[in-house]
Amino acid sequence: MDYDFFAFISRMKYIDRWSLMRSTERENVQEHSHMTAVLAHALGLIRREVFGRECRPEALAAAALYHDAPEILTGDLPTPVKYHGALLHKAYDEVEGLAVEKLLSSLPEELRPAYRELLEAHTREEDYLLVKAADRLSAYIKCVEERRAGNREFLSAERSTRQRLEEMALPEVAWFLERFAGGFEKNLDELGTLE
Q1: Fewest Cβ atoms nearer than 10 Å: which of 84, 91, 142, 194?
Q2: pLDDT at 81 > cutoff 70
């Protein structure tokens, strides 16, 4: 029997993000998920190594890799639409739940519990907060990159995303922003090359 799960996952590259915005550089869900995983892993390491709290950065990275997987079937609903009202948000959550079930049904029975844990990481509060923070950090970085490329279209998104990050009041996010956000303001020459 053929299983289609990884064929579905491979299609993440066809789902564009920021569909309501004019971008200087397109971003797809696969690219976003990779960056979100990198950031979730970093936030987990910061939690464990800097703040001495128990954390499994590898589990956060894996959950982040799959955090937008349902969008393979639903498409990327822009944030202003998704969170416009409670009724719309609830309806989208239901559709997303159906997409998760469809993805899980495309796996052998033995693998479904492990992938359910990844696809439903948002149901575990502790994991969800750092993965959600990484998701927002990835969006914030995209906004910074667009602004640096001269695209004023992302200015308000940059401000609101930064504000939502700060409102999360996570020490890991504050620590990351204080030490790493400035790097995204630099070009390659300013970052340094192999001299």
Answers
A1: 194
A2: no
DSSP-assigned states of every residue in 133-151: HHHHHHHHHHHHHHHHTT-
Residue type, 105: S
Second CATH level (architecture) for the domain 5-183: Orthogonal Bundle (1.10)
Distance CA 59, CA 118 (A): 8
Q: Which residue has the tokens 């029997």?
A: 1
The pLDDT tens digits for 44-73 are: 999 999 999 999 999 999 999 999 999 999
The 8-class DSSP code of residue 120 comes to: T
Residue 161 and residue 134: Cα distance in Å, rounded?
12
CA distance 192 to 79: 35
Rounded Cα gap, residues 46 and 168, in angstroms:
16
pTM, entire model? 0.91
d(CA 24, CA 47): 34
pLDDT-wise least confident of 47-51, 118-122, 166-170? 118-122
Rounded distance between C-alpha atoms, residue 42 and residue 33, angstroms: 14
CA-closest candidate to residue 58, choices 34, 38, 84, 78:
38
Of 121 and 23, the one with more pLDDT: 23
